[in-house]
Amino acid sequence: MKPNKLNSKLIISYLTSISLSIVSHSVFGQIFSTAQNPLSVHWNAIESGGFKIIYPKELENDAQRMARTLPFIYSKVGLGLRQHKTSIPLLLQNQGTIANGFVQLGPKKSEFYTTPPQYFDSQDWLNNLAVHELRHIAQFDKLTGTKARPFPELVYFAYFGAGIPIWFFEGDAVVNETALTGSGRGRQPNWIMPYRTSLLEGKKLSYSKAYFGSNKDVTPGYYQTGYLMVADMKEKFGQFISDSLLGDIRKRPFRIYPFSKSLKKYTGKNTRTYFLSTQNNVAEKWKNQQDIVVAKSYESLNKKTTLATNYFLPVRLNKNQVLALKESKQEARHFVLINDDQSEQKLFGIGYQEYPWFSLKNNMIVWDEIRYDPRYKQRSYSVICSYNLQTKKFRKLSSQSRLFSPTLSSDGKKIIAIKVELNNQFNLVEIDASTGKILTTFPNLENEILQTPSYDLTENKIAYISVTEKGKNLCLLEGDKKTLLIAESRQQLSRPIFIDDKIAFNAHFNGIDNIYEIAINSKKISALTASKYGAFNPSVTMDGKVIFNDYKINGYEIAETDIAQKPIGENGFVDFAAAAEKQENIGNVFNNIPDSIFQSKRYRQSLNLFSVHSLIPVIDNEYVFGLELQSNNLLNTMDFYTGAKYHRDLKRFEYTADIRYKALYPVLSVTYRNRPKRTFYHAKNVIQQGDWRENYVKLNASLPLSFNARNQTYSFTLNTATSFTQRYAPENMPSNFIKTLRFPMEYNFTFNHSVRTTERDIAPRWAQVLRATYNHQPFDQNLNGEIMALESFFYFPGFAKNHSFLASFNYQKASGVNQYATEIATVYGYNNILAKSKLQNSLLFNYRFPFAFPDWELGPLAYVRNFRAGVFSHYENIGKSTNISEPKTYGVELNTSVNILRYQPVVDLGARLVFVNKIYNQNPILEFSFNYSF
Q1: In 765-861, alpha helices (H)
Q2: Measured between alpha carbons, how far is 468 from 489 in angstroms, rounded to an integer?
Q3: How far apart are CA 459 and CA 358, in angstroms?
Q4: How far apart are CA 447 and CA 872, in angstroms?
Q5: Mean pLDDT for the stretch of residues 407-413
């Protein structure tokens, strides 16, 4: 056999797979959850002015408040879109410790996650959610109408994603929340700070980079991009510009780039040119602000960074070392020691935190992190962990707790933290740092939202932030005496610490986040820093200096300065929503909420299993298509789908029904198919065609469990299934045609362990996946046979950061009717190579790595985020048909992540060149792949 030449004919194999994935983001992330609550949650419901509020019984007070608030403010929130009434169910979720809120269609509903983060706006948390999410409800109502049409919700939702950029939805909502309250993210300098920094450093962005982000640089994000663009539209084109845009899209939906075309109709600019115009406008305003604000440059104590990198919460461990929490585009969050020469020593990784936080005293580190319920992912906990720098020992100080912002006393023996109950009661608690036992609970009779506490050196005084609808307060607790040092402020007060008889804290008095101090006795406020872009997270050093985060173009860096009081300075904050606020002319939308009491009723899960919302087209392949009716209930405990599909090759219909019940610990599902089938067989030395119909019923039970601890995640899945098939109406079938298939059994167990990944990781640095499958036919003597399969996947770090090496060995043993089945991972190109023997095992080696992050905007066609490459060597039936020097296939692959035609989904395009062992007499195979994710 002659070796294949480079100019050999290529066999082209088109591989197309589609996957949808959702990744958790920060507050107001519009992330839609499909998770469940535990069965122990008892639900009530209140109906008020078009809102059906469904809530756990512990939240009665908050539910009553929302029942008064939501109908009262909706007409004001929706005024700019000419929306005055709505009808929507709204769920209050209290089992989790991650803040979020969203509105969705399919089914139409909104959800408020009632536990607030430790850093957010200067107003009540649920009000904060309400004013933002109700604007999304008004947007959807503007586009779809308030009257339900025959099951269109998922079709609408798909159109919104394809036709309207998400920055508009979110930017319009943020402008609205800012214009209708005394707070709002538009009034927070740190929220827009990354973009301000980039522009003032002379680094302007393309539209695509600002919208879609980057794997190397800090970018503003679509919330901030949208806020600036919509605020500019309202300033130039009036209060109802959003109404005009959405109204025009609703009238003329079937266009390419409908939003861009409507925007050009009303403003004369398309999306890209409007972004560039807005960018120039805000850059000019920020340059003018820079001219009136006195700022100082601080030397960084960390090494120079070339990509987005944050060193959070720096503290002096000793005169030569700084401890910080580091994360970057290529490294997950971990503790790091930074030496005087700027060299670094990685200590260990930690779990997910909504808000970076840790405390160091007496060689002890404590921090909080999120832990999830093994089964019911709506339930999560915030636990306190500790690490002793001397003994190198970890401890988990609390289990199944809801404790936040733990801060050590000066001797490291006690912890002050925030505890949040399921009824949203907030309290300061004092904890034994060695046992985790709660020693003292401090009363909070007004039930203000509490944040970021700290001790003084004597441990007799505690400083903390409290939040109400009237603003933020800087509080001092001394015994039973509570003193408000700063009251009802719209400043973003945060993280107070004691410096002798003063308290240092974060605020933005001069329009830029900086560190200030207040004298406890006189309440005089002075500035301690004058950062150009933002200073945060102060800590006092042993020699009486302040070490802090100084924001620069690549993220939060580390700086140090002497303690010297400075004037607060002139407030130069640029309020981009000022014009919108004047247009709305409402003031605070939460003023004068009526004081009403509503009747609540029990909301029973068993009586609310169905919520039919959509009739959608489905296309299985080029031959099979149809319609499907979909139902997903509001609590995400049951899914139901039914439909009809037409097989155009068989000229017959298939009827389907699927039910999945997810409220119990195991997930139970039933699948039904009434379908046409066709086969071809040899008879009388000719090929015969045979047809029949069959009723197919499959029962499945699955137990998905997962655990997380620090930066490790472990998951276990047990699955068992069986089915029954009854064939009927045979046409031209042989006499030995089997009409009944009785209960074949399937069993599957999967174990997965992985460490946290980053944006640039192609796969985890360390991960193991083990899977065992066994299928057999114990109840059907006509179909003897079984298959046992064992799969293993081991991921290792490569030669450089974000490189990944995969070694996978897989084995299967099959007999009888299963002898030609495939249950294990196969070599690349498997389906295009004629087999020489039955598949028994595979050994797969893959090495993958990213090599470029260009952030190319190729006009309106594509935005190229990265390029990745890989090499592979795959073996089949190793030890039987081949040895380690003779892979069955080997080759190279190239992938890129792009946003096509300025749409939000990230599309992964790939090409793989597969060379085949010469014994197969096979030309090289060129495969293409297409995947996308949100």
Answers
A1: none
A2: 10
A3: 18
A4: 59
A5: 96
Contact 666, 690 (CB under 8 A): no
Q: At which residue do the structure tokens 């949208």 appear?
A: 226
Q: Residue 288, Cβ neighbours under 10 Å: how many?
A: 11
Pairing between strand 767-776 and 785-797? antiparallel
CA distance 686 to 562: 94
Contact call for residues 279 and 204 (beta carbons, < 8 A): yes
Whether pLDDT at 6 is above 80: no
Per-residue confidence band for 150, with pLDDT thresholds at 50, 70 and 90: low
pTM of the model: 0.93
* pLDDT confidence of residue 149: 61
CA angle 202, 205, 209 (to 5 degrees): 150
For residues 321 and 342, what is the distance between their CA atoms, to the nearest angstrom?
A: 9
Beta bridge partners, 431, equal 415, 438
pLDDT at residue 16 tops 80: no
Measured on CA atoms in the order 778, 781, 782, 786, is the torsion positive or negative?
A: positive
Torsion of CA 18, 24, 29, 32, to 10 degrees: 60
Closest Cα partner for 803 from 768, 767, 760, 845? Answer: 760
pLDDT tens track for 85-119:
999 999 999 999 999 999 999 899 999 999 999 99
Task: Please report, for residues 48, 54, 154, 687, the alpha-carbon distance to residue 682 in angstroms, rounded to integers and kept in the order given.
Answer: 69, 62, 46, 5
Neighbours of 2 (CB within 10 A): 6
What stretches of 710-739 adopt beta strand conformation (E)?
712-731
Tell whether the model's pLDDT for residue 283 goes beyond 70: yes
Using omega within 30 degrees of 0 as the cis cutoff, is the peptide bond preceding 374 cis? Answer: no
The residue behind tokens 């943020």 is 174
**Cβ 175 vs Cβ 580: under 8 Å:** yes
- List Cβ neighbours of 138 (8 Å cut-off, separation of 6 or more): 74, 77, 78, 81, 83, 86
pLDDT at 7: 34
Residue range 414-423: mean pLDDT, rounded: 98
Beta-ladder partners of 863 = 857, 899
Tens-digit pLDDT profile for residues 752-806: 999 999 999 999 889 999 999 999 999 988 788 999 999 999 999 999 999 999 9
> Among candidates 567, 562, 577, which has minimal Cα distance to 527?
567
Answer for the pair 174, 184: CB distance below 8 angstroms, yes or no: yes
Residue 3 has pLDDT above 50, yes or no: no
Is the alpha carbon torsion for 862, 867, 871, 877 positive or negative? negative
Q: Helix, strand, or coil here: 736?
A: coil
Q: What are phi and psi of 391, to 5 degrees?
A: -85, -10
Which long-range contacts does 789-793 make (Cβ < 8 Å, 24+ apart)? 789/813, 789/823, 789/824, 790/824, 791/824, 791/825, 792/768, 793/767, 793/768, 793/769, 793/825
CA distances, 277 to each of 2, 206, 233, 657 (Å): 62, 12, 11, 52
When pLDDT is cut at 50, 70 and 90, the band that residue 372 belongs to is: very high
